[in-house]
Amino acid sequence: MNSFLSRINKIYASSKARMMCRWPEIKSLYVQEPDIFENIFKRGSSIRYKLRHDVRMNALWIAYNITDGYLKNPRCYYCGILFEKSDYFNGTVHLDHFDPISKTGKHLAGNVVPACRDCNLLKSNLLDIELLQISKNPETFFTNKYLSSSDSKKEKLMDFSALFFQRIGGIDGYREKYNISINEIRSHQDKMKDNYRAKWYRN
Ligand SMILES: [Zn+2]
After folding, report:
1. Same domain, 97 and 174
2. 111 neighbors 98 (Cβ within 8 angstroms)
3. Does residue 65 sit in the same domain as residue 152?
4. pLDDT digit string, tens, across residues 102-137
């Protein structure tokens, strides 16, 4: 066992947290992609989270989740842009807290998603409820916030917030809004993300 594996094995063995998976699964994932696993673990256990409960164990779960995602479907959680391996090391892939930790969010695996730099900066610390307001009632929202932002940024935020509708509006609300069946949701979401990227990423 190399030194990093020994280290995370100790963390795993000493944690009282409920186990998301067994040690052989963690080890097998690490062996498949050690560089990304280790990189995400280090970022997930950064000094800014040090005061939070059981930060090393949470960093382990976050590294496990993100590495697993890299092997299966390496994309930005929000816009769906495809990541290259190098993107995990060059600042393109951010670890975004879905529910912002500057507000009520926790530094837990279920709340940390891989996001491209562009989406992470655009989302900033917006909450679900604010994204819903932008999507449903942009005039009111922009009357109170983003006062000095350009029209282009506001339009981008409106398009971005539409990508969240399934999560914040519920599956039934989403189906009703777009008049689609439950089997069409996945492909509809993918299409929305494709359109978003085509419009806002000129590459
Ligand atoms: Zn993105």
Report:
1. no
2. yes
3. no
4. 888 888 888 999 999 999 999 999 998 899 899 889
Domain of residue 200: give its range: 126-203
Q: What is the Å distance from ligand 1's center to 78 Cα?
A: 5
> How many distinct structural domains can be found in the chain?
2
Single residue among 70, 103, 124 that ends a domain in this structure? 124
- Ligand 1 centroid to Cα of residue 20, in Å, is 27
Separation CA 18–CA 169 (nearest Å):
30
The residue ranges of the chain whose pLDDT is under 70 are: 17-19, 50-53, 203
Do 109 and 166 belong to one domain? no
Q: What's the 108 CA to ligand 1 centre distance in angstroms?
A: 20
Token pair 């604010």 is found at 130
Q: What b/e readout covers 154-163, taking b as 16+ CB neighbours within 10 angstroms? A: bebbebbbbb
